[in-house]
Amino acid sequence: MLLRAVMHTLCVLMLAVAGSGVALAQVLAPGQFEWTPASQSSGPLLILVSIPEQQLHVYRNGVRIGVSTISSGKPGHETPTGVYEILEKRPMHRSNLYDNAPMPFMQRLTWDGVALHAGRIPGHPASHGCIRLPADFARQLFEMTERGTRVVIADEASHGPDVLHPGERAPVDSYSGLPAGASTALDSMASSTDSRLPAPPAR
C-alpha cells in the first residue's frame, strides 16, 4: 500500500512537471555522465551548466548530446553565473591560486580563475569556483570544443526553470547564450528597426 502511494505521488509530480514544460533532471550518481556525440555530428556547440542540478548539458545544433554531473563552487567561492565563451584550453594546467593544484583538460572561462576541468565530484558544490567534471567526460568534452564555444552558467537568480532543468532541445541560443524566445524577439526587433530606416540616397 505504501509503495503504491509513493508511486502514485511520483507519477503525479512527473505529470505536473511535464505539463509545465520543464524537463526532469537526468538521474545520475556523482561522477556519472551520458555522452552520445554521434546523435548530432554537426552544428554549433553549446554548454549549459545548471548550478541547482549540479549538471552540465552539452548541445550540438540545438540537440543534447551529453549530460554530466559536476561540482561547482562551494559557499564563499560560488561559481559566477552568466554567458561566457571558452578563452583558453590546456590539456594540463596547474592552479595559480590554490597550491599548484592540477586542473586536467582545463577550459578557461574567465581570466580571474573560473574554468571547466576534471576533478573530484562529491555530489555537492565543493570547488573554489571552477566547474569540476568527471575525468573521462572532461577529456571527451575537451576534444570536441574550441576557443569561442559558448558556455551558459545558470542558477535560480539568473534564469528560469526551462534553463535550470533543460530537456533534449537547447533552451538558449547557441551563439548569443540568450533564452531562445529572447533571442528570437531581439532578431524580430532588429528586422523591424531595419525596415523603418530610410533608404540610402542614390549615388
TrEMBL record:
Gene3D superfamilies reported in the protein's UniProt record: L,D-transpeptidase catalytic domain-like
Extent of Polar residues compositional bias: 185-195
Domain of life: Bacteria
Pfam families according to UniProt: YkuD
Record region (Disordered): 159-203
Signal peptide interval: 1-25
GO CC terms of this entry: extracellular region
Pathway named in the protein's UniProt entry: Cell wall biogenesis; peptidoglycan biosynthesis
Active site: H117, C130
Coiled-coil spans in chain: none
Keywords: Cell shape, Cell wall biogenesis/degradation, Peptidoglycan synthesis, Signal, Transferase
Domain L,D-TPase catalytic: 45-154
InterPro entries linked to this entry: LD-transpeptidase (IPR050979), LD_TPept_cat_dom (IPR005490), Transpep_catalytic_dom (IPR038063), UCP029342 (IPR016915)
GO molecular function: peptidoglycan L,D-transpeptidase activity; transferase activity
Family classification: Belongs to the YkuD family.
Entry-linked NCBIfam families: PRK06132.1-2
Name by which UniProt lists this protein: L,D-TPase catalytic domain-containing protein
